[in-house]
Amino acid sequence: MSSHRNTRELMLRALEAGTVIPAFNIPYLPMMEPVVRALRDTGNFGLVMVARLEWIKFEAKGLREIRDQYEEVKDEQYTRLHLDHVPVIDEDQLRVPYLEELTQAVELGYESIMVDGSRLPFGENVAATKRVVDMAHSAGIPVEAELGAVMGHEDGPMPPYEELFASGKGFTDPEEAKRFVEETGVDWLSVAIGSVHGAISAAKKNEKKVEARLSIEQLQAIRRAVDVPIVLHGGTGIRKTYIMEAIKNGIAKINVATAIRQPYEAHRETSVERAQEAVYDAMVKVLHEELELRNSADIINPL
Ligand code: 13P
Question: Cα(74) to centroid of ligand 1, in Å?
Answer without folding.
Answer: 21
